Amino acid sequence: MFVRFFLALTSLMFATLTHAAVNCDNATDQATMNQCASQQHATADKELNALYQQITGRLKGDPDRKKLLLGAQRSWIAFRDAECKFSASGVEGGSVYPLIYSNCVTELTKARVETFKTYLKCQEGDLGCPVPGV
Asked: Which spans in 59-129 are helix H?
């Protein structure tokens, strides 16, 4: 029993040390660059999700428009993923593929973040904006 506990604790310590040791500013090996790119995408995706929640909150009284947003977002995700698979297809199967793919999805996600930020800045009475102002 002690051996299992020690093994579990050891793997946990190594996982923590590995995570803490990642220095994305000075990444020099492919695995670290891939991990850093993935982390950048996760950060952008987290921001996108927070903005999406804000927008859906503003649309709570308009279920038809909320449904349109959901459809648009699902279509955008499908586009983003397909575009980035194509963009990275030249290195498919290679060690650099995760980096190229992650960079692509990060950039497209950041662009979508900016679109959502624009939606959230709509002024009351702006007929060209799908999200009501506060």
From this structure: 63-87, 97-120
